[in-house]
Amino acid sequence: MKDAFGAPQSLLVLGGTSEIGLATARRLIARRTRTVWLAGRPSPALDAAAASLRELRPEADAVTVRTVPFDALDPASHEEALGKVFADGDIDMVLLAFGVLGDQGRDEGAPLDAVRVAQTNYTGAVSAGLTCANALRAQGHGSLVVLSSVAGERVRRANFIYGSSKAGLDAFAQGLGDALHGTGVHVMVVRPGFVRTRMTAGRAEAPMATTPEAVAHAIEQGLWRRSETVWVPGALRLVMSALRHVPRGVFRRLPL
């Protein structure tokens, strides 16, 4: 099997400039991955990301890195754009890594901005996720790794717009995993806590903050174990299990 032992030969990153996505690509390239597709809006940043991955392997054992135009907010284009990737050859792993945090304070007063967060994080992910899932099922193997968030486990007052979009994504990915059970396609939901990235720069860190590299390591370990759910860091599983059962009146008063 091409993606045996959690070491895919080919990788498609939806959200080609994602720091977590690129950290994961670097980690997998260090092992076995030799073909990488970065899907994202055409930009110098996307080109630079592709160039940085090509530099990771010596010429004799080079990695092929290509980019493909992809816009989460244009679901009508997903089937054609992503279909070109799968038409070029089997993809062992798809990493759904795109998303936006938004600005809760602003977005509450600007519904269209809030809708953009929801459309990117949920609607765009549903479209791209199903497109890739159908292609993986057709080829008979592969992993679909979906970057969710602990923010979706129990939505907080401070970021309920973002959190609700991740809650929807998380539920969708779990259901998709059940639907694909027995087809040869593995779906893994990854729930990081606060990750130090450009997206969170300038924001107060939450407890147990982590890094893109730590998330990438957890993804690699999850692939190896064929996990269905991965928490980063792992201790968040217990924390969120407790918070999930806190009465709502108490929960809304917690400094979260």
Automatic annotation (TrEMBL):
Q: Tell me what this protein is called.
A: Decaprenylphospho-beta-D-erythro-pentofuranosid-2 -ulose 2-reductase
The protein's matches in InterPro entries, at most eight in alphabetical order, are given as: NAD(P)-bd_dom_sf, Sc_DH/Rdtase_CS, SDR_fam
* Superkingdom to which the source organism belongs: Bacteria
State the family it belongs to: Belongs to the short-chain dehydrogenases/reductases (SDR) family.
SUPFAM superfamilies, per database record: NAD(P)-binding Rossmann-fold domains (SSF51735)
Species name: Streptomyces gobitricini
Provide this UniProt record's keywords sorted from A to Z: Oxidoreductase
